[in-house]
Structure formats: C-alpha cells, structure tokens
Amino acid sequence: MPLAQFDGALAVVTGAGGGIGRATALALAERGANVVAADIDLAAAERTAALAKSVGAGGTAYQVDVSDAADMESFAAAVKEAHRAPDIVVNNAGIAVAGSFLDTSLDDWDRIVGVNLWGVVHGSRLFGKQMHDRVHTLPNKPDKPNLGGHIVNIASAAAYTPTRALPAYCTTKAAVLMLSECLRAEFASSRIGVTAVCPGFVTTDIVANGTFVGDEEAGERTRQRSLKALKARNYPPERVAERIVNAIVKNRPVVPVTAEGHLLRTLSRVSPASLRLLARIPAPRG
C-alpha cells in the first residue's frame, strides 16, 4: 500500500546536509512533512532543518554517523522519543571511493561499506522495526488500517553497472539494491513500502569529497574530469528528489534516474555482456 499522504508525515533523511539528501528533505517538507534532517555534519543538517521549517511544517537536525551502530541506535531512539515512529525514511548518506581493486585498502573498504551499506542496514533495521511495531501493536480501524510507512534507499546506477574504476562503490550500491528488494518482500506484510533509487550522474559533492586511491596525480586528474562531466551533465539533485517523492506515492520498487541510469538498467537486463565489455575500458590518461 503506497504512502500517498505527506501532510503531517514524519520523514527521516540521512545525509541531509546537502545534495540529494537536502533536496529530498525540502521536497518532502514542501508537501507537508515534518523533516528530521540527519548528517555527520551538524551545521549542514541544521541549515537543511532551517530551510525545511521555512517551506513546510517543521525541521529538526541531528548529528549522526550512519556507519556507527551505537550512534544510529541512539539516533533512532531519540527520534521516537522526541517525535514518534517515522512514516518515511530516506537512507541517503553515501561516499565514493574510486580506483582499482588492488589499490583499495582494507581501511577504504571499511569506510565505504560502513557508510554506504551498513548505514542503510542500520536505518532500515531500526526505523523499519518502529514502523513494523506501529502496524502490529496499535489497534486497526476497519476503514483505515495502520500504515507502516515507506523506506527509500539511495543506491546508484553503479549498482548494475560494473566498472574497473569503481569496484568498492559499485559493490556497496549493488548490495543496497539487493537489500532493498529483499526488504520489500519481507516488509510488505507490515504495509511498509521499500524503494531503491538508482541515480546516474547528478550534480552533488560526492565526487569532490570522494577518495581516489592509487597514484595521487592520476587520482586528481580523474577527480577533475569527473567534476567537469558532472557540471556538463547538469542534472540537479532536486530532480532526483522529485523522483523520490513520486516513488513513495506510487510505491515503486526500483527507480533509475537520469537518461544514463535508465539506459544502463536496460542494458543490464537485455545485454549484460555489453556492460562487461564496457567495464574493461580503462580511464583516460592526461
């Protein structure tokens, strides 16, 4: 059952300090949701909360490290105590690590898996439990059964697009996509929708703040090329936020975003061999 009413809803958004997270928080706030903006950067989360208040019902900022289980447990408990179980959760926090597999250290793997995968696991487990309990412990009205809510996990077109340049990033996003599919099946009986959103190239700070492993000069060249490509692509996070809102309303399972996101999704289904060949192409030099 889709959650189609945002007026009065409580929405938790991680990585809400900027980019897709901030745009999604504001899109939900504009539609009447009370937003909980969470980010490891408290000042950035506070700016988002202030903007949410200016356009909607309200906003509250929290500082949280999504990769830290204890921190996330404290955060989820604080949200329930100060507000209630959320109606919408957007697990958006993410980081990028670029470079070859052999150049990617165990510390790099720990960091990206901690944020990109464990962050989604923690958010889905803790808030999913709150949603589940609301459905199964509160009395139902025959004409208006309790809604569990909706969980949105931000994956990426990289989830179904292998490349030698992003093995760690692709792996974590593929895991987020599969986790979302599994949760959708399990949570359906609790009237909780689950959506995996898979953007392509979007103008955010993920590249600027990303880690490029291996040769330092080559990594910086790759960063600059990527930044130029994002600028040329010019796909703003607000357009992703619109797709997220639509996905919640219509209870979509998987939502590719941007033309390349759709194209790569189609290729992954009809011609996976072509993606395997593309994955072998090395990054350009210079």
From TrEMBL:
Gene3D superfamilies: NAD(P)-binding Rossmann-like Domain (3.40.50.720). This is SDR family NAD(P)-dependent oxidoreductase. It comes from Actinomadura syzygii. InterPro entries: NAD(P)-bd_dom_sf, Sc_DH/Rdtase_CS, SDR_fam. GO terms for molecular function: oxidoreductase activity. Keywords: Oxidoreductase. Belongs to the short-chain dehydrogenases/reductases (SDR) family. PROSITE patterns: ADH_SHORT. SUPFAM superfamilies: NAD(P)-binding Rossmann-fold domains (SSF51735).
